[in-house]
Amino acid sequence: xxxTYIIELENISKEYDGIRVLDNINLYIKRNEFLxxxxxxxxxxxTTLRIIGGFEQPTEGKIIFEGKDITEVPPYKRQINTVxxxxxxxxxxxxxxxxxxxxxxxxxxxxxxxxxxxxILRLVNLQSFENRSIESLSGGQQQRVAIARALVNxxxxxxxxxxxxxxxxxxxxxxxxxxxxxxxxxxxxFIYVTHDQEExxxxxxxxxxxxxxxxxxxxxxxxxxxEPKNRFVAQFIGDSNIINGxxxxxxxxxxxGKVFDCVDKGFDKNExxxxxxxxxxxxxTIQEKGQLKGxxxxxxxxxxxxxxxxNDGTIDWKxxxxxxxxxxxxxxxxxxxxxxxxxxxxxRE
Amino acid sequence: MxxxxxxxxxxxxxxxxxxxxxVLVLLYAIxxxxxxxxxxxxxxxxxxxxxxxxxxxVLWVSVKLALQSTVMTLILGYPIAILIAKEKxxxxxxxxxxxxxxxxxxxLLRTYAWLTLLGKNGIINFIISQLGFxxxxxxxxxxxxxxxxxxxxxxxxxLPIYSVLVKIDNSLMESAEDLGANKFQVFTKITLPxxxxxxxxxxxxxxxxxxxxxxxxxxLGGGQYMLIGNLVEQQFLWVGDWHFGxxxxxxxxxxxLLTMAITAKFDxxxxxxxxxx
Lengths: 349, 277
Prior knowledge:
- The complex is a heterodimer.
- Chain A is α+β, with helices and mostly antiparallel strands.
- Chain A folds into 2 domains: 5-231, Rossmann fold, CATH 3.40.50; 239-344, CATH 2.40.50.140.
- Helix content of chain A is 24%, strand content 35%.
- Chain A has a 6-stranded mixed sheet with strand order 6-7-8-3-9-10, with helices on both faces. In chain A, strands 13-12-11-14-20 form a 5-stranded antiparallel sheet.
- In chain A, helix 5 links the parallel strand 7 and strand 8 (189-194).
- In chain A, helix 2 packs across helix 3 (110-123) and helix 3 crosses helix 4 (139-151).
- The radius of gyration of chain A is 24 Å and the shape is elongated.
- In chain B, 32% of the residues are buried.
- Helix content of chain B is 74%, strand content 0%.
- By secondary structure, chain B is mostly helical.
- The radius of gyration of chain B is 23 Å and the shape is globular.
- The A-B interface holds A 53, 55, 74-76, 80-82, 84-86, 88, 90-92, 101-102, 105-106, 133, 135, 149-150, 153 and B 169, 171-172, 174-182, 185, 189-190, 193-194, 268-272.
């Protein structure tokens, strides 16, 4: 038994009517970490969460919780609570009764229930909402009640299934920070499911990128962003230019008809690779100084920056810059060696 | 209240087929037996006549049987509704139609069918006699009438409960389970309270026709069997005392309304899908 891991998924696979939705998932979740399962819809992230919660049985593999196999344990016996996608608050109970539900089941004394509910309502900033009916609450308030209802049971692990999906952008951003703070304050493990890469980058300690039922990459937000393992991750997280290239030797890569210095090594000589360059890492300069030269073909204002497409004759480069160059301008582009990220070429079926 | 002209046909319908008959029934109930409309004599005698213990007995038996059949349909119908609601959507529709299709057949025919099933020479008695037991008196008693009611009214209990159950978000049950409730607690604390509107509608839809039936009781209860519905029928068709018949109808109506008002009190849910009332 490994003490640092609270939950371990071992070779988890799940099939529905012969269709494989999860393929051999291995996941080690550390105590007190904020872990995010990130991926497009249908990638298996929610299924993974439901398997951890006990609402689905894996076809193969097992789930270890604090060293014990809990694969067969029903949800109500797991020390795990869930915040559901559409909150799933009980419509026939008020806020207090909703939050007290779990404690009542555990036969906690009424006095203790009262004080615990009060305390948790303070944590989620809903003091004096006890007697409100669920339908009188806004989306954000319902969200908080759902979180309070789960947290009041003091679970070891909190599962959150796209809990902010129904909220508007501003509220979502506020709740992201609030959730992260809450997680630090209560000091328990959060397993969070989202398809929003920005949300994942903001909140997580580690991110598990999933696609088609397979884990694509596990890492810290910085790792995932800067060192995507494959084309899928590079495209899913942030914007990127992905170009075919050839790794001439360690620290030398050729793409767009030029040889660049880079920081990657360990590839075969002249191996074909894919090169990722983030749009914000392409620096605009005068044409003579540029490693790459091209003509601006389109420009879009994005708020903080401009997004420009620069054509160098064969490739359309996406650039994010605070400097605006109008359409038709000939410019040069420079990219620093550490901003060139080389990935192994994966032939995906 | 503003009304669109498109509602006039319905209004006309309601006036001709609901309001006018009701007023006539009321008029008959509070008038004495006089030949001509010009010399109407108002009286409460028709209601007084009902105070006779023998009529009270009839009312009591009717209510008792109606309550029994309502409880029976609820006990049978609720689990069936749950089982169907838990099935996959494709299978649900098949199962629900299995309960609806018999209703396409004439109500009388279906009830007559029980005569041949339960009769002295019926199939059930045939099987029993083959096993070496004497023929049983299955027809013309309370049991037969109750069976007929439960059989005929069961779909009216299943359908409203089913349609409420099917709409309950499954994640509510899951979150209750997630919060530590076992299957039984999930049922008592979530499923049952949320399905009360369906239960209320089901009770209403079974109790009302059950308390006023006269066909089932006459066919399966035999000629002597008297429920309040038979009493009304008798007054109108055989005795010809429309005034007393109308008075009984009014009493029965008031009784049903009271029962429904009491039932509705149990519907504590303030919003969402309401019962019939």
